[in-house]
Structures are given as structure tokens and as C-alpha cells.
Structure prediction request, 356 residues.
Amino acid sequence: MVRSKKWPFRAAVGMILTVALVLVPGCGKDGQETSGTAEGSRKAEGDIVLYLDGSPVSAEEYGMLAQKFSSQITMQYTTDQVNQEDFWETEIDGETPYSRLADLVEEQLRENYVLKDLAVELDLTEDYTYGDLMDSMEQENEERSDLSDDVISYGLSSYDAASYYQYWYSNLETRVTEAVIRQEVQVSEADCREYYEENPQASAYELGVSILYAEIPESDPDAWNTARQLCAALESGASEEEIQEALEVSLKELTLTSYDTQAGMSGVYQNRWEIASGLSAGQVYGPYEDQGAVCVMQCTDRAENGQVAFEEMKSQIERYLQAQKAQEIIKNRTEEMEVESGTVTPKEVIVSLMQG
Prediction:
């Protein structure tokens, strides 16, 4: 069971990628223990800007996020306003730029620290500090730099603080939501059906095409000749049973819809849909090569403005509902988070960083 401090868990996002996050908290670069207490955190992290549910946010972490989000603030002002010496402290339209930036940074920190707290409660990681993350980043960069030239490395060749921080929390969110689903989440069939019935537009499609489809391995030396005979048999109106008996070819009855393309699920079947959607009822297409097979299809029916059946949509709806509930959980937790002032203010960090 999840050890929740404030509320029971009910849901989280589906469609999870499992990503290993390895980090040893509590150790600095020299191997000395530096975290685990407020005093130790201050010593390891320097000045503290905020405490989020008791966890310290260092000026270093706060400043990194302020730098990252600063362009979102400056783009909302004129060049002349941004270039003035005391821009960040100047009240413009009743608000100072630094206070707007501080709001963005605090919002991101709340979300990240909620994920961190949940990960600890779910036994996904030990507690850690921003300094621990930076130590982990340096170790990751060292390992990547040690790769020989003939080893392919995917992703960045090295991380900076901002990119590693984003990488860490993106993966942490994935693992937290996966664990919550596994341990606590249940979405009933009744919930899914209710959503399906109340949101018909979510499963609607503009065009549906029913086809008879066959594919013969191209490795078969007689594949193209058999496919041409199949085309002729379909055009002559021969039954499926007659065709299968004469040619020993298996015909599949498939229904393809534009919903699959809209939802981005067509994948390797994209070419099949593009062909089928252009056929009229009774029309035969082929033979043609696709994915190492010789293929033939015949359109048997076309329908417009239909709806994907509930059974085909059920798993997608279940994942969607889990994701929606997870977002509600995180939002509620971030809003409930207690924020306390630290030894330096957000204004001091932002103005010092932005105006030198």
C-alpha cells in the first residue's frame, strides 16, 4: 500500500515506459555525507530559497530553473523594457517581472517535489537533494565520455544541469505513475463505458472501409503469380471458400477506419489504409509489395461518420481515465504543499542572476 501523508491514492497515468533511475543520495563528490538533515542540506546546497513540505530548495536549483524560464517572461515585454537596467525589479502593468518569474519557478518546483515525495513513499528511490542530482549528472557524463568511438551512444553526448534535471524528473514521473497504477488504481468497465457514451466524438471516425486482404511471403517463388490469380478470382466474384480451396490463400476480413490515423496508431499499417481508403465497394487492388509480402485487397464496404466499437476503445479509455485522475492527484498535492521561506528570497536570487 502507498504511504500517503495527506490523501489516498486513486489513479495515475497509463501507457508507461519503465526507466531505471539510479542515484545514491546523501553523498557529495568527496564521499562525505551531506544530506538527511536541514543543517546537512544547507551545508551541501548553500543558501536555501524555499522549503517545500520541509524539503529545502537551494539557490543553485532555484537559479537554474529561473534561468530556464526567464525567456518566457522577457518575451512578453518590449525590447526597450527588457534592456533597461532594473527591468526585473520594475513594476510594469502592476506587476514586476521577477515576481512573475518566481511564480513559474515555484510552480515547477512544487510539481517536481511532489514527484520526489511520491517516489520516496512508493519506495522507488531514497530521498535526495539537488546536489545529489548534480553528482549523478557528472557520473553519467563521465560514463558517456569513456565510451569508445566505435560504441553508438543515443541521446545527448553530455548533460548540463537543466537538461539532466528535466531528464530526471520526466523519467521519475513515468515511474511514479506506473507504480501508483500497479498498486492502487482501478478503473471499472462501467467507468469506461460511461465515458464512451458521454463522449462519442472521442471514438468517431469520418471514414471506415471493410476489406478482404491477403498477403503472400515474397520468399515464395510463386508469390506474384498466385497474387495475380487471386486478383482475377476476386474480380470474377468467386467466393472466399472457392478461392481458398483453389489457391490455398488465406483471406482476412478487416475493418480499417480513419480513427486509427487520427489517433496516430496506424504504424506499419499506414500504407494499407492509404490504399483501402481510396477504393470503392467491390474494387480490387494489387498485387503490390509491402513489408516483404505480395499483397492483394478488395474493398467490400465503405461507411462514413461512424464510431469505433466500445470493445476496441476500452483499453484506450481506461488509460485516458487513469491519466486524468493522475493529473488531478498531482494538482491537488501541489496545491496542498506547504511553502516556507529560506535564508534568501526568490527576488535576491533572480535579480542577482539576471542583472548581475
In short: Confidence is low (pLDDT under 50) at residues 1-20, 24-45. Residues 138 and 324 are 36 Å apart (CA to CA). Strands lie at 48-52, 55-58, 204-217, 252-257, 284-290, 293-307, 339-341. The longest helix spans residues 310-336.
